[in-house]
Amino acid sequence: MSWHIVHKHVCYKPVRFWWSVVVYTLAIFMAVPNLVENFPIYDAMVTLLPVNFLALGVAVGGIASALKRSSGIDIRGRILEIIVVVQTLLLTGVSSGLVRGYFGEPSQCWGVFAAAHNNNAPSFMEGEEGGSTNNGEAGLALTGPFHLSFLDISFLNTILIDIPLKQIQLWYLKWDFILSKLGPVSRRFLCTSTNPDNDGIVDYSTIGCSPSTRTINPQFYLEEEGAGKCGMDIGLVMGVWFAALGVLCVGNLYRQFRGARRNHHAANNNAPAAHHRRGRRPHHAHQE
Fold first, then answer.
1. Angle (CA) 202 207 209, round 5°
2. Looking at the domain assignment, is residue 207 inside a domain?
3. Alpha helix (H) ranges present in the chain?
4. pTM (global) more than 0.90
5. What average pLDDT does this structure show over 48-64?
6. Are residues 225 and 178 part of one domain?
């Protein structure tokens, strides 16, 4: 939709705009199953979509620029757009599985590289005596995607995964607590009980409004139910994000270096001209 059409409807025909908002909102509620009940899940999925798009756009765009400078092959344009869109859809599918795992369903993780990982030496699944996991391998204890096995250090998992996920949990619990305090609106429209027989006498301010927030597990990637798939997917998604940050940093440094080199060459080219001007005799001197 053109920006001029949006501007016309918002500024000159606001009634049509708000009716459109109502109609599309109702259509979304009817099309998406259990939207109110699982609103935190859908909220997290939708939030990660633009994040994945921006990260892949930066990373793939940086690779395309480097490829053009190094070999002269230019894939920018429609080809690059198609690549970014397809990869965004795939990465959003992976991140959506992680969201489901975060909200209590670690079996929903895709485990993109889990099959290849299980056939090779594991990097974040350490062997232990006894026990077994869902992947059929005995004695595997999940330690996370950023566990340094050669040093037996897992603080990177704490810094990069546990702390952010716990802060996100507090964010959802805060809003869940606010929605549970709306009295009849909470009981009739917003909150859902895990036991339908006791729905009328449940105190949502104590147990929470949404069933999804009650099952949040910030360390879901360590659950045996996921068999290491969630940890592998976290490593993949965060690897793309870190790659985008790396491309931004390298691009910024390269632009600064190129600007400094350009200024240096300009200064060197201007120096002989300035010396030549200083050595010339003035033309306005008159002979007596």
1. 80
2. yes
3. 3-11, 14-31, 39-71, 78-102, 114-118, 155-157, 163-179, 184-185, 204-207, 211-214, 229-279
4. no
5. 92
6. yes
